[in-house]
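pinned: reference chain
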Amino acid sequence: MSTGACQPLYHDIRAFFDEMNMGIDQQFPVFIVPREALNNAIAGENNDFHHMPETRGLCLSEDQTVNCIMRRPRIGSNRLIGMRTNPQKLTRNCQVTAIVILCGLPRLLTGAILAHELMRAWLRLKGYRNRNPEVEEGIYHVLSKMWLESEMTPSSLTKKAAKPDIEKKLSEFFIHQISNDSFPGMGVATSSCQ
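pinned: its structure tokens
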């Protein structure tokens, strides 16, 4: 998908979140990018937890960390002795700046990645911080799986038509991948939500 072709999908997935009473108030762009741009973005987001050998999507945010002095140092021998610092995350009200997704992926996989990253954005915007990385990644996987399942369900309310067999099989394959991810903790996270 191109960035332009991805926009209707982005709006559909935001509507999916709205239907679950998980609306995202902030507007931010979604870009389809080449591998080099994604790698550069990953380098800038060094505090995030990435478990996949190949990152395919990223939620960019405006976080900064500073080291705060937790214990006042003593001065001795022309140096500071006994100083202890603790990293303190500073955030702004506008935390999510963009979502970037690797180019060259089919619509359903792009949508699953986008649902994953929108869940990350939702948690950031709601102020949920300092979560267990395995639990957090499990939550993102569950939302991706839920979106894929919703795409395969025809509905007169959302005016979704039945999907072609090839899309059903592709969706089943992506759902299988998510359900059987070897990521630590995923078996617990997905099995309780199936």
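why pinned: Strands lie at 30-33, 57-71, 74-76, 79-81, 84-102. Residues 3-191 form one domain.
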